[in-house]
Specification:
Strand order of the largest sheet of chain A: 1-2-3-4-5-6-9
Number of helices of chain A: 11
Number of strands of chain A: 9
Oligomer: homodimer
CATH topology of chain A: TIM Barrel
Distance between the termini of chain A: 20 Å
Helix content of chain A: 40-55%
Shape of chain A: globular
Largest sheet of chain A: 7 strands, parallel
Radius of gyration of chain A: 17 Å
CATH architecture of chain A: Alpha-Beta Barrel
CATH class of chain A: Alpha Beta
Strand content of chain A: 15-25%
Order of helices and strands of chain A: HEHHEHEHEHEHHEEEHEHH
Chain lengths: ~260, ~260
């Protein structure tokens, strides 16, 4: 998504050229390209699919069919992790307690299905500014409280610096999640202001904002996390630029922080 | 600030006409009108000044002089409460731990000065989306952890629904603050999306958004809070309308929720 201006074959070729060993994919471009074809493309290039983004939106109708399809796509792509953005307030879940209850119920229903197929669900807490419209799970503690009801190889969490950097309780939650083997994804983005209208597409390039990304990286190391580290930047300014240039810049920044 | 389009004499006259018993004032319009003159205006109308907004911004140079002036202005206005917006990241406080440490030190220096003058400092946790540029105190727990180092009649907290509604730990913190007599201000605003660019001026009119304001009101009642309830809406759309009409609408909404 960081370089969504690149077509999937170009993304794969550039990752190989630059020595990037894996890539997190999103469902929409994968489905547009064809799930089987995308799987073959990435596999033949020797790239790992680090995660599939995203399942979730459990507070909306049709969540069950949609999420089973996402799990099946993860299997086809050969990734072991499906990231979940759990959904916000809706007509059927009009407040945070009901939304959080629904999210827990939905994950209970999906976890065995995912586990049977070797896919781990990674609940992603989103920044509290998305609590009403995208994700009623706002802190790593909340995500862990749900995940801990299930086996770690079925349900864990996504740690994204953009969403969690402000939370003084996050470091303890990262440690707790790490010990339990529940950190299933680690994503980097920096925090920059002013936020754009709608607050979706203003994630900062690494090293340009307020987050101490080295400290977060060290925190995940200390928690025993040995999985891939993804960079996920939703940023209109980056999307408007040449994708290869942005990919190269992002890799440089990644290595620098 | 909800009806900042009204000049101070008009605001005061309309509050009296509508039976609104008190008003929270902001420093800028008060200073523009003259602090002594504003104090006389409000006093002669029989209105209480519920709070003065705002002191704080402790991570910027000049905070000490600025905040002593704010305390003095509160005394002149006859309010017992100065709301603090504590400040974000700056060159001298470039990360959250240093900003939070500075905020604590600054409040330690100001608390006796305020207490000697009968003014209570009310630390306001701001929504985490303001952590970098306005306030490194993002949760009621954080605000309380600072406040609890001082006597309750010197330092407490501001509970603003807009900033805290998403936090599942806030209800316990409200109860804890209430028992200790540390809720020094209670402010209402609703949460509406999409957020505007800069995320400052999109606070929702009461009852138009995602927050269960009745539940918050009940929560403060249960915590033993008996002080004034303020409505604080920063909203470009409301500011563009006739101020008297907005004041009347806000009063209706207030009574309804």
């Amino acid at each position: 998504m960081t370089v969504k201006q690149l077509a999937l074959p170009d993304l794969v070729a550039e990752c190989v050229r630059l020595g990037v060993p894996g890539v997190g994919l999103w469902r929409e471009p994968v489905r547009a390209y064809g799930v089987e074809a995308a799987a073959a493309l990435v596999r033949e290039a020797g790239l790992a699919v680090t995660t599939l983004c995203r399942g979730g939106f459990f507070t909306s109708d049709g969540w069950e069919e949609e999420n089973r399809a996402a799990i099946d796509e993860a299997v086809t792509l050969g990734t072991d992790t499906l990231v979940l953005v759990s959904g916000g307030l809706t007509a059927t879940c009009p407040d945070l307690p009901s939304a959080r209850a629904r999210i827990t119920e939905a994950i209970a229903e999906l976890a065995p299905y995912a586990g049977d197929r070797g896919v781990r669900l990674a609940i992603e807490p989103l920044h509290p500014m998305y609590a009403s419209d995208r994700c009623a799970v706002s802190t790593l503690d909340q995500a862990l409280e749900i995940a801990e009801r299930f086996p770690a190889d079925q349900v864990g969490v996504t740690v994204d610096t953009y969403h969690l950097w402000w939370d003084d309780r996050a470091p303890a939650a990262v440690a707790r999640a790490g010990v339990a083997g529940r950190v299933h994804s680690f994503q980097l983005a920096d925090w920059t202001t002013p936020l754009p209208e709608g607050v979706l597409n203003g994630r900062g390039q690494l090293g340009t904002g307020s987050i101490d990304l080295r400290a977060w990286s060290a925190m995940l190391d200390e928690a025993g996390y040995e999985g891939p580290v993804e960079v996920e930047l939703f940023n209109d300014a980056l999307w408007a630029r040449d994708g290869v240039e942005v990919l190269e810049e992002t890799l440089d920044r990644f290595l620098a922080v």
